[in-house]
Amino acid sequence: MRDTSSTSGAWSKSFATHLRWIRRHRLAWLALAGGISVFATDQRSIVAGLIAWVMIALMFGASRGLALVGCGITLTCSWLHHERMEKLAEDRRRVEGGVWMDFRAQVIESPRLDQDAWRCLAKVTQNSRWSGRSERLFLYGRGSAPQWGQIIEAHGRWEPIAPPRNEGEFDRAAHMRRLGVMAECSIAQWQPLAQPHAFWRWTAATQHSFERAITRGLETGSDEAKVILAMVMGKQPAYDDDVVEPFRQTGTLHLFSVSGQHVNLVALILWGVLRICRIPRRTAIFLLIPAIFCYAWVTGASPPAVRAAWMAALFLAAFLAQRKADLTASLAVVFLTALFIDSNLLFLPGVQLSYGIVAIISIGLSLSHDLLERMSWNDDYLPRELQTSWQTRCGEIWQRFLQSLVISTSAFIGSTPLTISYFSLITPVSILTNLALTPLVAGLLGVSLFAAVIAPFSQEAAEKSNQLNARVARACMRCSRFFSDLPGAHATITTHKPTRDTIRIYDLPRGGGAALIQADGSDALLDTGNAQAFRRIVLPSLRYFGSQPYTLFLSHPEAAHMGGATLALKQLPLRQIISPVALAKTPSFRSLTQEADFDSVPIYHGQADVRITQNKNVFWENVLSTDPWDIHRIADDRHAIHLLHFHGFRLLFLHDAGAMDLAALSRRLPDLRCDVMIMGRHSLHPVVLGDAIKMFTPAAIIATHADFPESERIPDAWLRRVEKTGISIFHQGHTGMVTLEITPDGSLSIEGFLNHARCLLPSQR
Questions:
Q1: Judging by beta carbons within 10 Å of its beta carbon (0-12, 13-18, 19+), is residue 607 exposed, middle or buried?
Q2: Fewer Cβ in 10 A, N or C end of the chain?
Q3: Do strands 99-107 and 151-159 pair parallel, antiparallel, or not at all (unpaired)?
Q4: Cβ(91)–Cβ(134) below 8 Å
């Protein structure tokens, strides 16, 4: 008898099982192979390409026809994505350095307004430089904004979208590239060529009427109105709004944009209404499918909403065709369609979360089917015919609860890798929060839809409905706050947190300043930049590096340096603020003092020679301070100059100190020396660099720079002066963020983010 391995039969059975699974889920397998091939093309990854061809080989083992189809799909997806990448790259090369252009474009989204400014996406149909191409632009303008769908004739400067200048900053250039945007354009003048098509006018009017109907009777700008508009229409509040943070910390911020969950809840609500009205199932499906697409379109047609609408349509169409509905197959068809239409969208975080979570939920429901059956409320041996109506109802409620728990847990498992990767956040409490918020959101959507339907007939009834909805919105806010305050509800997790003490000097626009000092056991933030810079640059970077500063140092009460301090107080676990002044005329400082008093965060007035310790190797000295009560001096003349002792190195932060501050410091500490000098520009009396070098004899200089305003530019004379001395200078107009890090041998490494310019100062020990 021939000898056989005890394991060969097991391997053969396992392989046959996998091939049968591929044949049963061929659409899912094809979609996965197509997605991997697009990823391999985009990242030029040999490993991903090999995985895609291994999948095709497995398809060949399952079915030769399936393998041929898979091969065709993967090659087509790769080719289409490569062509899109090449076209966009060529378009971007055309506008390098900036190009003034006369052009015609159609506005393809509702313009976003900010006081007297507006911005939107547009599709160019004609321009004065080249022809035969259609490009997407991101338009900026002032004054009146064009309408959605309107064709305009404009004159403006096309410029490439700038890459991030700070590590951890949101990469807006990459995001716009995924949206197919070739450039941004600041419009000097524009005029409409024609009124929007009737369809676009209907869309804009419907959006406006819908928004007005669901907020009628509510105070404009109230928290309740913000929550309703966010959850029903996807109109998110400002990032620094108090309403937002509890939802972010509980992993439910997706409720503030119209996603697949919203579309599914609206579909369930409408289905329930149609069944109550005793409309036949087949007719109800014919009515439900266009209603779902209408809701997704009116609320902005975001990719997750469109994905959910198509999935729901395919799922419901299965009933019309008298076929078994399959969630996985519906997702696979929509995913493949997206690959062919615009594969770049698949690299957006929101789209990845949308598809990924649905896929994990589908797998979770499939794997837990038998378990849920075993956890039935009623005895398995009790026939259904003998159950009371109460027992039957309890059993149905219990099964729905278990199914919701599986969905919520699967969503957490599926979203966690992406939330850690993109947002450095993990939210275990989201499992419970989603369970609690889902019925509340369903109720809020249901009441909003009722108010929208009833508003044309009775404004009073719509107002009463909205007042009821305001209570539901308050319940949503209280629920999110309750779960966000639970111990261990959320945590910051990042792979980018430094293992050694590090300093990061941010490069902020318009002469702003901020620095992060990450020391073992305690982090500190020196200045914040203005509110916009803190929200868009500093805060995302802090989260990227897993930093939660306890101490905030302020250099002087000027908006470009401390305008974001109030927002920092809301977003960071600050325990103390060190300020050079007690009173100031600037609105940002007054706002900070009021918010700090409300949150019981002390503000100390820094005095000369006071030492503040971060850890045994990192401590601060305030070497110069001004009268904290003298509010009549300008902000740039009310400086505190800080000397940071960092593992034996001396770093002098001059900030925007002027020549008079330098003279005062020279009289007070004539023998003051430093290894690194960090300096900005005084608005009226800038420091003479030669005098500063002579006084402090630094080995390296980090100088902030901004093209606008002109007073924030580094003078050419500075650079010529430094070249003669041999001192290493880090011009932040060229380097962007500058990182200072202690090396294992105790040296200080200084490196620029953009040009990777590097300097190494030997150990001081």
A1: exposed
A2: N
A3: antiparallel
A4: no
Largest Cα–Cα distance of the chain, in whole Å? 104
Distance between CA atoms of residues 212 and 219, nearest Å: 12
pLDDT band at 311 (very low <50, low <70, confident <90, very high): confident
Residue 240 has pLDDT above 70, yes or no: no
Interatomic CA distance for residues 450 and 117, integer angstroms: 34
Residues whose CB falls within 8 Å of the CB of residue 588, separated by 6 or more in sequence, listed in order: 530, 531, 557, 559, 562, 563, 565, 566
Name residue 646's beta-bridge partners: 618, 649
CATH topology of domain 95-196: OB fold (Dihydrolipoamide Acetyltransferase, E2P) (2.40.50)
Q: What are the helix (H) ranges across 455-538?
A: 459-484, 531-533
Per DSSP, 673 falls in state -
> What is the rounded CA–CA span in Å between residue 730 and residue 740?
12
Q: What's the rounded Cα separation, in Å, for the pair 524 and 130?
A: 52
Q: Using an 8 Å Cβ cutoff, are 498 and 545 in contact?
A: yes
Q: Which residues contact 727 (CB under 8 A, 6 or more apart)?
A: 693, 698, 699, 700, 701
* pLDDT > 90? residue 632: no
Identify whether the C-beta of residue 505 lies closer than 8 Å to the C-beta of residue 738: yes
Query: For the segment 185-232, what is each residue's pLDDT rounded down to a tens digit?
Result: 999 889 988 777 888 888 888 888 999 999 998 988 889 999 999 999
Average pLDDT, the chain: 87
Question: What is the rounded CA–CA span in Å between residue 150 and residue 148?
Answer: 6
d(CA 589, CA 289): 54
Asked whether the beta carbons of 631 and 584 are under 8 A apart, the reply is yes
Confidence (pLDDT) at 625: 83
Is the peptide bond prior to 280 cis by the omega test (within 30 degrees of 0)?
no
* Segments making up each domain of the chain, as ranges: 95-196, 204-484, 502-761
Given a contact cutoff of 8 angstroms between Cβ atoms, the answer to whether 157 and 114 are in contact is no
Distant-in-sequence, close-in-space partners of 25: CB < 8 Å, separation ≥ 6:
328, 329
The candidate with the shortest Cα–Cα distance to 685, out of 659, 721, 647, is 659
In this structure, what token pair is assigned to residue 467? 């007042």
- In this chain, the answer to whether the domains covering 95-196 and 502-761 adopt an identical fold is no
The CATH architecture one would assign to domain 502-761 is: 4-Layer Sandwich (3.60)
Distance CA 153, CA 124 (A): 10
pLDDT at 10: 66
Q: Which residue has the higher pLDDT, 377 or 563?
A: 563
Question: Could you count the other beta carbons within 10 Å of the beta carbon of residue 280?
Answer: 10
Dihedral sign computed on CA atoms, order 301, 302, 307, 311: negative
The answer to whether the CB of 430 falls within 8 A of the CB of 251 is: yes
Q: What pLDDT is stored for residue 53 in this prediction? A: 86
- DSSP character for 242? T
Q: Does the predicted TM-score (pTM) go above 0.70?
A: yes
- Token pair of 582 as six digits: 């007690």
The residue with greater pLDDT, 397 or 486, is: 486
The residue with tokens 């038998």 is 370
Cα 557–Cα 669–Cα 741 angle in degrees, nearest 5:
65
Nearest Cα to Cα of residue 227 among 427, 453, 444: 444
DSSP state for residue 712 in the 8-state scheme: G
Q: Mind listing the pLDDT tens digit for each residue in 673-718?
A: 999 999 888 777 778 788 888 899 999 999 998 877 777 788 877 7
Residues 331, 35: Cα–Cα separation, whole Å: 13
How is residue 67 written in tokens? 């393998």
Q: Which two tokens stand for residue 81?
A: 């994505």
Reduced to 3 states, what is the DSSP secondary structure of residue 191? strand
